[in-house]
Amino acid sequence: MSRMKTFNLPDLGEGLVEGEIIKWLVEVGQEIELNQPIVEVETAKAAVEIPAKWAGKVVEIHHPEGTTVEVGSPIISIDTDPTAGDLEPSAASLAAVDVAPTEGAVEPGLIGSPAPKANAVLVGYGPKTPSAKRRPRKGDTAPAPAAAAPAPVVPAPAAPVEPPAPAPGAGRTDQVALAKPPVRKLAKDLGVDLRGLVGSGPLGSITRDDVLAAQNGGGGGAVAAAPVVAIPAGEREQRIPVKGVRKLTAENMVASAFTAPHVTVFLTVDMTRTMQVIDRLRALPDWRDVRISPLLLVAKAILLAAKRHPMVNSTWAGDEIIVKDYVNLGIAAATERGLIVPNIKDAGRLSLRELADAMTALVQTAKSGKTPPADMSGGTLTITNVGVFGVDAGTPILPPGESAIVAFGAVRETPWVHEGQIQIRQVTQLAMSFDHRIIDGELGAKYLRDVGAFLSDPEATLLAWT
Amino acid sequence: MAKGGSPPDGELVQLLTPEGERIESVTGSDGTVYRADFTDEEYRGLYRDLVIVRKLDAEATALQRQGELGIWASLLGQEAAQVGSGRALRPQDMAFPTYREHGVLYCRGIDPIMPLGLFRGVDQGGWDPNEFKFNMYTIVIGAQTLHATGYAMGVTMDGKTGTDDGEAVIAYFGDGATSQGDVNEAFIWAGVFNSPLVFFCQNNQYAISEPLERQTRIPLYRRAGGFGFPGIRVDGNDVLATYAVTRAALDHARLGQGPTLIEAYTYRMGAHTTNDDPTRYRIASEVEAWQAKDPIKRVRAFLEREQIADAAFFAEVDEQAKRESLHLRERVLEMPDPAPVTMFDNVYPNGSPLVDKERERFVEYQASFEGSAH
């Protein structure tokens, strides 16, 4: 064995890849003892002294103080038999070059790590042998068995590693069948041999129904030969293809929920005066045939408040914010096809009467399933009337491209402090979600407060604001 | 109060002061008299244990720094707590260690190479727990106290308590572990079932970086009162007192009188493990104060003062320690790496078709490399 030894920086703390040379405690030419501290190294975990692995004479120090060194790189060379005469001058540096493992920091066992035979990676700094190169596989055309091993780095996009696809025929029966323990128990109880079955579950696993079908259908061999998923009577699960409105809703919700940072604020409002205004409007001869609901007044409140706080009616466009001076007011509508959000174009310019008519038309069209696509695009601010479903509040998700949405809860008769006394009042809850990239908590709160102020006292507010 | 400082007077059983002065006996609050009457040969033996255990530990730490062990949990400073309690065990007594009980392991007669295989990652420890009455190292903090409690309950069910030569069980853990649910559950079960168990807590003042003051508002040994069994604090740097207190608690247990909590008050002079840097969370003056209470120095002072040992003896012990540590080093470096395929061994006691298949695939995979012997 060579008397020249080169010490590589070990992994001092379970998974480190580098360390900084803080201070050399020995110098070239110095005679050192076994376990004599030679260097202070600081890693991400600790500053430690490394003791000499061999006694001898320091021949070379590979890195000056202050250098960050990769785990596995040579740091010191020691002549372990300095009394035996001169060394060849270049021996140290040659040893250093040879010893440095090129893949020393690679985790053991991972694909791309040093070959299994060089498995001295349990401790230290990976392979201790000079050759840390990956050994070639036998034969160029050999099927790559590596594919059979899990690839933890690159996620396999398509099929799992060993395709469990039903492959009836030879070789199949000695496979261990994939099945959950309760299914195994069922098969055992019923005397069904799992190995003869073709699974219809995830990854080709055998489900409870497969076992039941095999029992009803007779021999396992027949089942294997005809890999048809039998659906017995009394199916307990229903599979609904994701398409149409459901698909669009899902895409929109995911796009919005994971793009815009949502914040929701809440406000409880005494709407008694609004309800009274509604009654008075209904009594007006001109409004006799008009469908008029609390939602209309909430819409009005939202439109008026948006004029006072135009920033809520905006779109985040990456490097700029688009603030609109028109409001296309979206009304979330539950239809048989699912949730749709048609909008009333430029609703801020409409009179209350026009708004009422537009809302009535919009809802009727939506319910009949005839909303044209143009009505569903370009919304800027939305109301969702969760109160019609009997709930008090929600935390709505913004339609993509919008920065505020108001949820209107059920209007309930509630004990309420009114003018210093507890009275039964018509109270509702408003919830407003907004895009925090555009709207700060203060603006969001002010806006919702103004919506609430209108609903608390529509007449006074109207006079004050317009 | 300084972290890791001295406990209040009168709460610490001590038979050998840091200056090496012998205290004849200490009477506990329950009237138990603690004394350690050793022959000169036995005193020298304890000293030898302490020195060798420290030296082997230092060698293991160096081996880790040299890349030969993945990690090492040093016992530096806790030698007396481990040798004192380890020597107090009788052959039939069962011990449940943490991963730091190298001193107890040594006293049980286990080859000190064994834990190094574990920390080198080439085996799972290697000793037979039944043969040596010393369970495998437990890495999970506090889990072994429940194992010990179950074992102790079994000892009772086997009818092996109640006599002078009955069996007792000892569970080792640290101050940090006392905050674990497992340890508190063990206290409850052992207390309720009056199990023959000694809870041996080495309070080394730090749970990695967390000081004792964040583990407890009262001295740890007093916790036992709430669980219905006695607790006692002993100077964990005093090998004589640790021996006496542990022996008494083990005898109490073997006679069927139930568990005891021993708090061995000590200090971890080194890092929690080789991954840790204690200078980041404790001050040098605190470490210096504890250096004055070193467990080995006081025994040496005592041996010299009483002329129980001479310079030749100390030199001979140092020589033996050096020899054994070098021997340990040589053997560690020669430890064979296990064949990767052995990872499939011992997964199930009776084998498994899935694991068999995986082993087969793995062998094929290995054989696919050029130059492979397969």
UniProtKB/TrEMBL annotation, chain A:
- Annotated region Disordered: the residues are 126-176
Composition-biased stretches, type Low complexity, lie in: 142-151
Would I find Cell division among this entry's keywords? no
Keywords on record? Acyltransferase, Lipoyl, Pyruvate, Transferase
Q: What cofactors does the UniProt entry give for this protein?
A: (R)-lipoate
Signal sequence extent: none
Stretches with biased composition (Pro residues): 152-167
Q: Which family does it belong to?
A: Belongs to the 2-oxoacid dehydrogenase family.
The name this protein carries in UniProt is Dihydrolipoamide acetyltransferase component of pyruvate dehydrogenase complex
Q: Can you name the source organism? A: Asanoa siamensis
Q: What is the lineage of its organism?
A: Bacteria, Bacillati, Actinomycetota, Actinomycetes, Micromonosporales
From TrEMBL, chain B:
Residues in domain Dehydrogenase E1 component? 50-324
Cofactors per UniProt?
thiamine diphosphate
- Domain of life, per the record? Bacteria
The protein's matches in InterPro entries, at most eight in alphabetical order, are given as: Alpha-ketoacid_DH_E1_comp (IPR050771), DH_E1 (IPR001017), PdhA/BkdA (IPR017596), THDP-binding (IPR029061)
Entry keyword set: Oxidoreductase, Pyruvate, Thiamine pyrophosphate
> Which Pfam families does the record associate with it?
E1_dh
Q: Show the Gene3D superfamilies listed in the entry.
A: 3.40.50.970
Would the keyword Chaperone turn up in this protein's UniProt record? Answer: no
Name of the molecule in the record? Pyruvate dehydrogenase E1 component subunit alpha
The protein's organism comes out as Asanoa siamensis
Q: What is the lineage of its organism?
A: Bacteria, Bacillati, Actinomycetota, Actinomycetes, Micromonosporales
**Gene that encodes it:** pdhA
